[in-house]
Write a structure and sequence with these properties.
Elements lengths: L4 E6 L2 H8 L9 E4 L6 E4 L1 H5 L12 H6 L3 E4 L2 H15 L6 E5 L2 E5 L8 H16 L3 E6 L2 H13 L6 E3 L3 H8 L12 H9 L5 H5 L3 H7 L2 H10 L17 E11 L2 H21 L2 E12 L10 E12 L2 H15 L6 E13 L11 H5 L3 H14 L3 H7 L29
Parallel strand pairs: 2-4, 7-8
Antiparallel strand pairs: 1-6, 1-7, 2-3, 5-6, 9-12, 10-11, 10-12
Helix pairs in contact: 4-5, 10-11, 12-13, 12-16
Pfam families: DUF4113, IMS, IMS_C, IMS_HHH
Family: Belongs to the DNA polymerase type-Y family.
GO molecular function, one term: damaged DNA binding
């Protein structure tokens, strides 16, 4: 059977989520902001057409925002996560195998399902997702994941595709590859693209014509596999079960500059609690903890300070108390008086499954105590899931003045009874 994979990608996902409950904003310029409402992280097509780039600070485009009446929203991750789950649930109806690639993308295995008319099946997916969730999507199809990704890029860029494109046909594939820059290929970053350009490889077609062995010798096996995928030879399998994270990072920029150790410690404790929750969610343990703090690097009028430190644990753990205590000891070594800190964070690495036997220290009493901490941590997680606003109080005290600001956040329409949409007739 001829393999056929599809990549379904939501259009301007964060903006689309806001528009579902604000239909008056359809066709108007809308942007979603990062933590602290500092930078633009999602743009409607109308905002893109104004030349506003991804990640640009809001203050740099304030004139454009006012002149074109751009509607701004703070990031509402609760809403976005729930809308993503609804989209993925809808997509599961169209395939026996699916890989959730990101919050707004999923690969679908359509092999043997849509051989008669793949484009019509893709249009059916597109219409069903829009009807069920209100989120517009584009569908790219091909015999490999890389070709499906390339087809999705073209489906978004050229409206004449109707938002659905199939690259199973070699002639259509070649026609597209000849006009698309090599930097648009999935997995080809800006540095790799620059090196390819130096070798005279400027388009996707140029890359697809290269011998995989030569590319592997000059770059690496990943780029060589990309060449094979561009020629319709599958090298990447669908990952129906998401792999465990090998690194967990939790950090935030503060709504105001922090100068006291106590405030930094409270913020760091909350970040550690969130990281530990993610660790236990995948039933893993951590063997190395790193902490970093920094001032605002974009303010030359203030003294600058940036430091990081890490430590390898004597025995791997998933206990919040151990992670918070270790992070605070590192913070004491890093903290210096006289600076206005903008950001801090924690990084968990050397992560492994909790089921793997762990080498313990005969004289480390904490390692044996961890065996009894599992039930306590499970109870803490259950409490935090039931009362999510209680996490910070339990972990970091009552002063939340450092919390990132979100002055333009929308309501949690789908997850909070108090925020349900009211309809007046």
């Amino acid at each position: 059977m001829r393999p056929l994979l599809a990549l379904v990608d939501c259009n301007n996902f964060y903006v689309s989520c806001e528009r579902v409950f604000r239909p008056d904003l359809v066709g108007k310029p809308v942007a979603v902001l990062s933590n602290n409402d500092g930078c633009i992280v999602a743009r409607s097509q109308e905002v893109k057409d104004l030349g506003i780039k991804m990640g640009v600070p809001v203050f740099q485009v304030q004139n454009l925002i006012q002149r074109h009446k751009i509607q701004l929203f703070s990031s509402n991750y609760t809403l976005y996560a729930d809308m993503s789950a609804r989209v993925m649930s809808t997509l599961e109806e169209f395939t026996p195998s699916m890989e959730v690639y990101s919050i707004d993308e999923a690969f679908l295995d359509l092999t043997g399902i849509s051989d008669h008319d793949p484009i019509a099946y893709g249009q059916r997916i597109k219409k069903n997702v829009l009807r069920s969730t209100g989120i517009p999507v584009c569908v790219g199809m091909g015999p490999t994941k890389t070709l499906a990704k390339l087809a999705n890029f073209a489906a978004k860029k050229w409206k004449q595709t109707g938002g659905v494109l199939d690259l199973s046909d070699p002639l259509r594939r070649e026609k597209l590859m000849r006009i698309v820059p090599v930097g648009e290929v999935w997995g080809i970053g800006s540095r790799t693209a620059a090196r390819l350009n130096q070798l005279g490889i400027h388009t996707v077609w140029d890359l697809a014509r290269q011998p995989p062995d030569r590319i592997r010798d000059q770059f690496n096996v990943v780029v060589a596999r990309t060449v094979m995928e561009l020629n319709g030879i599958p090298c990447l399998e669908l990952e129906e079960i998401a792999p465990d994270k090998q690194q967990i990072v939790c950090s935030r920029s503060f709504s105001r500059r922090l100068t006291e150790y106590r405030e930094l410690s409270e913020a760091l404790a909350e970040f550690c609690s969130r990281a530990a929750e993610k660790l236990r969610h995948q039933n893993s343990v951590v063997g190395h903890i790193s902490v970093f703090i920094r001032t605002n690097p974009f303010n030359p009028n203030e003294p600058q300070y940036q430091r990081a430190a890490g430590i390898t644990l004597p025995s791997a753990t998933q206990d919040t108390r151990v992670i918070v205590g270790t992070a605070n000891r590192l913070l004491k070594e890093l903290f210096r008086e006289g600076y206005r800190y903008q950001k801090c964070g924690v990084q968990l690495s050397r992560i492994q499954p909790a089921s793997i036997p762990n080498q313990t220290d005969l004289f480390d009493s904490a390692a044996f105590a961890q065996a009894e901490s599992g039930k306590l941590m499970q109870a803490v997680d259950r409490i935090n899931r039931r009362f999510p606003k209680g996490i910070a109080v339990a972990a970091a005290g009552f002063d939340k003045a450092w919390k990132p600001k979100a002055e333009r956040i929308s309501r949690r329409y789908t997850t909070d009874w108090r925020d349900l949409v009211g309809v007046k007739c």
